[in-house]
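pasting for ref. prot 1 ->
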Amino acid sequence: MRYLVFTLAMLLLGAGFADRAEAQRTRTESGAAEMDLGDYEGLRHAIGVVDFSNDAGWRGRWRLGRNMAIMLESALQDTDRFVLVDREHLGDVMQEQDLAAGGRMAEARDVAQTGRLRPAKYIAAGSVTEVEESASGRDGGIGIGPIRVGGERKEAQIAVIVKLIDSTSGEIVAQERVVGRAGQTALRLGFRDRDVAGELGGFEKTPLGEAAQDCIAQAAKFIATQMEEFPFEGNVIRVANNGQILINRGAEFGVEEGQELVMRSEGEEIIDPMTGAVLGVEEGQVMGRLRVARVEENFAYCDVIDGETEPEVGSVVYLK
């Protein structure tokens, strides 16, 4: 009899684990929907994500700051509102460029070259300030007669201060404290198209990983909402022989044919004479208007509607 009861308990428990595993694999097609973000038809901003600092002093088998940075990068990608600039392998890229520039590699036109790293206007960073893990009784257990199959439910909570930094000035342009709790969000980050550390797959299935995902969902929503208010800007990169103006923003950034842009001169940096710190950039003079005529992946051709027909390289363009 005891054997039959034990077998039944194991079957029921196995069914429960299977349901949980299926729920973990289930993922909606839109990460923006999972983060409760509405439809977005605006232009995209370039953003990089750096490792979170572990200011909570937490120690464990997981690289908390690195894993949360990977999660945030994936969540921002899922919103379809950003052009992600990889900062994880920046050191490797720079080393490869230095080797090519130093003459220690065979000459070739398609090898790594210095001066061609894509810049990110904004940097997303975070500081982990609190980490709590605790057990709170039994969970998921099944009791039949004298036999019980189950264990303790472990809970976790993570508090993070997420920051959005203007890479030009180093200024923190937005900041928010978010608290993530295990089991509080349905977000399941897919980490698609990424070569991530093997430990991440195990991390996301732990209570601490669930709390981190909840935290990241809130952080990504905060950043996406803040960025809706930030101005979209690009630059003139060339004046074509046919008189069209080439700008360094294309389909990747959400640029479309027919959009009208304002063109202005580059403003001068505003420098504090006492400290030498760059306080910002003075707004340049408006030089004319452009209309997007043809869009490539990484740049676009524009017709001059009125104003300057031969703007200097670096002149700023922005949405009207």
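and prot 2 ->
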Amino acid sequence: MKFRQKDFVNEFYRFCELLQNKTPFAFNRFSDGELYILQNKELILGESSSKVGSSTINIGYRKEDHKHFKPEEHSFYREKLIDSFKYVKKNYFKGLSCRCCVGKNEFKWQLDFHGEYDDNFTWANLLVNGNYSRFIHEMYPIFNEYKTVFICNEHARVSTFPFVVKDFRVGYNAMINDYGLIQEIKDWIDKNNIEGYLFLFSASSFSKMAIHQLFEHNTKNTFIDVGTTLNSFMDMRLDRSYLKSFWLNDYHPDINKICIW
């Protein structure tokens, strides 16, 4: 497999330039949770503990991140996730879990599972860790130049965003329970002839399938998986290390971490 070296900071500014130039693109992020689903491992994210395959770990997640992927019941949704992971198209960027965060073996597994190398591979963590302050100070202001649609948790507050003109909401285990929302968003785009809009996603694994299918359906809009980056504006919990470091002055070295490829 032909391998391309990348620079964490330069890659971030690549996306800023696309936004500033109003060039439509999709940025889809496959973090460790999606990695486990792609590997067809049972995944449970709960309040006080989590389960990956046969291993239980004492790490809890906030309510909006709770999910349960059952390989024997949810194969349809895994196939849709695989489709989004393997989809190749101009300006469709896929963020992988990098080797400095998940280890060399897991990083290699993603490349092997994908098959042919995609020049549009990038970091799943591109907007966080050492790039988070850049995201807030340099990318976030560009959102004001767009009419924006936000797809997020049912409990999130979006009234603080002056650029948001429409929102769609998801609930628990959205990749399964809210899968039909993808068609609803497609219909809304078609009915209203939506072009040149920015679609932001903070909807866990649902985001991955939605971004793929929506960009495949209409390449005249931009779709970005922002994950938890805007939680501070949405009255959502600041429990990620990079969020606590930036917003709560609770220092964690991740806030300065420059991820490697």
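The chain has a mean pLDDT of 94.
Residues 204-217 form the longest helix (14 residues).
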